[in-house]
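Subject: Sanity check before I submit

Could someone independently write out the structure tokens for this chain? I want to compare against mine line by line before I put it in a report. The sequence has 81 residues.
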Amino acid sequence: MVWYARFASSGTQYPDVSHAVCTNSDGTTVSVTDAIDDEAYLQGKFIEHVQTRGRQVIHARKLSSAMSAAKGIGDHLRAWW
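---
Independent answer below. Compare away.
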């Protein structure tokens, strides 16, 4: 999946699923648009969810999304040492 956006601005993010594929449990691949088969959802609620996810992280964790990213980086680097 391709995400178009300005850095650190969830409201400008636009997910492009037109080239995304997923693998079924039997090993076959199918396009995401065929697997979901709901164009209204992909062009509506899905985009809305992507664009508001930063706010949702802040609300759920009571931390900024920058702090969440920093923690992820710290956890990753800790695994190296």
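---
OP: Matches mine. For the report I'm noting this point. The longest strand covers residues 2-4.
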